[in-house]
Amino acid sequence: MVGFGGKKVHQMIVDFGGSGFGQVAIAVAVSFLVRVFSAPSPALSPDNDLYDSLENGSNDAEAPGAGKVTPVTIRWSSVNCCLYDRSTRTVRFLLRNMSGIATPGRLLAIMGPSGSGKTTLLNVLAGQVTASPRMYLTGHVEFNRKPASKSACKFAYVRQEDLFFSQLTVRETLSLATELQLPNISSAEERDEFVNNLLFKLGLVSCADTRVGDAKVRGISGGEKKRLSLACELLASPSVIFADEPTTGLDAFQAEKVMETLQQLAQDGHTVICSIHQPRGSVYSKFDDIILLTEGSLAYAGPAHQEPLTYFSKFGYQCPDNVNPAEFLADLISIDYSSAHSVYTSRKRVDGLIQSLSESLSRIIYTSQINVNDLPNVNGLSNSRKKITQRAVRKKKGTWWKQFRLLLKRAWMQASRDAPTNKVRARMSIASAIIFGSVFWRMGNSQTSVQDRMGLLQVTAINTAMAALTKTIGVFPKERAIVDRERAKGSYSLGPYLFSKLLAELPIGAAFPLMFGTVLYPMARLHPTLQRFGKFCGIITMESFAASAMGLTVGAMVPTTEAAMAVGPSLMTVFIVFGGYYANPENTPIIFRWIPNVSLIRWAFQGLSINEFSGLQFDHQHSFDIRTGEQALERFSFGKSRIRDTVIAQNRILLFWYFTTYLLLEKNKPKYEPLQIPADDKEPIIKTEMLHSLQVEQIVEAPPVGQVDSNQPPESAGGDLVGPFVLEGAK
Ligand SMILES: Nc1ncnc2c1ncn2[C@@H]1O[C@H](COP(=O)(O)OP(=O)(O)OP(=O)(O)O)[C@@H](O)[C@H]1O
Known about the structure:
alpha/beta; Rossmann fold; four-stranded antiparallel sheet; 12 strands; elongated; disordered N terminus; disordered C terminus; binds adenosine-5'-triphosphate; ABC-type transporter activity; ABCG_transporters; ATP-binding; transport; membrane
């Protein structure tokens, strides 16, 4: 049997496990530690096949950091995405009969009004449609003529929301991401050169040493954040780059810079697909191909520039001179909701365009072939990068310790540099100590001081726990989104992440309870010895960490900060009620009697009480008066307890919450909807369970394609259609 601190493990279990909870906590803690200390676990990847295959690598794909860009052509056809609405019992088509192609070396923009399905299409192509029982996805998506589920190519997905650790500089962000994702670049010089090249390529040199920043502290600009997102995604040398509305929220200059970067990446051999709402003229001119979407259907797909204008002019829609083509196209495919008449006419126009395109797509003319040999096969990241990549890069993640070291460094930078948050926490700790100290000013040894002391120790336990809990749930859901993204890339495992987080936050997390104790202790004149003061601070520090760990669990359980803010304090209220002061468990129904054993407030209160009351003498007049601190402890059923019990219990609780966080993060990792192969390409399939609850006529299509008045000129355009699509390979 393994010895632990001079004791046998089984003996410790017996010691801890006086209660059932003790044994369960030991069991989960041991399995947690076993898991955490075991060899690095495989990267966690989303549950879809495409992602799995990307993660596992294949013959075609290079290992991370390989630097070579394998040219990838993406084709998709008959893609339908339906959403079932239980309340109205209708099915809505978010995407209807989508087909298209994206080729290496070209920048494809998906344009359309808000809600037209741009992000949904991008997600389908990236295999990242969030799984939902109400969603159904059918169609074919191929990467280099292999079904997406079987192909293996590396792709990057730059999402609308840029998420970073706000206290790191641009260079530090990239450097740490490089170390985590490309552990085989071991020399610091090589890594620096690699990062410098990325900074140069993405136009981030001028802000390389600026902190990313957040809402509290201004950092780099929105455009620079977007380019930093791109730089982080480029580390893995992706063949395909998806960018969801990369210009949203940026001014015209920044938007242009971002689009210039994407254009450059396309010219370097990547297949670049971005969604964009309504670009200005100079941005539009950078697109090689465009897809126009309206209400989930295709209105145009093919080359950009003049071609769409020529195409629509055949239906009588001429783009006036000096009008931004992107604005003209956006207006053409939008429904005008300003009046009933405008809705009618614009819908008729849009339906006609959709109908015309769906007819012409069945006769697609493949006018050009992309010769992949003409494309640069290395994405221009400099000779050093090529040099680095010529080495066989086999390993995907660093060792457990390397991951731990890097994550610890990052967590420490984030925690120690966050001056605004730390200042607020310090002020709050001191302010609450002053308030409590003023209320319980210089307590004496009278009989009434027994109650005062108990009250003060209880509010101290509650205040410490609430402060730590709210701080954690305020920031963790956002951090979790970053961690989910990084883990999906296979950068690291959960064990080193959680461990490094705990360790990095120890010194700073301990500072605030210490400040609180230093101010409160003399003000309230608690048990006046240095040793008791040390124990007081130790107990509340430990409680603060246990409450933080509980905050992590709440943050991992619910999707947003708002939800966490609702759940966390409610859960804590239960522990407050059973905190040792308000309710005596022996008087509560038997089903609640276990709660005090898991209440971090109760354990803190118990420890603080023992620390305070042991050895105290009280003034007394009557025989029933409390004479000693020990008698006071007896009244609260703490007579036989020791401070050691608190220490053990708080550690047990902390481990329990960390373990639960681990499980929840594993369980709640993003899951994606698989793409079903349609039985009949012409008809979208609807999940059987949806059909069971539907009348056929209740299937609503958005938009109703083909209900067009044949007398109207644009919709009647017939045999002379220009096949707007340029697809590779067919003749
Ligand atoms: N998981 C989902 N559940 C419910 N509705 C959804 C879901 N995904 C997409 N939708 C709906 O599908 C439509 C298309 O959404 P999508 O985000 O693809 O549009 P978009 O063109 O990217 O819009 P925007 O330009 O405003 O970002 C929207 O009406 C959206 O509400």
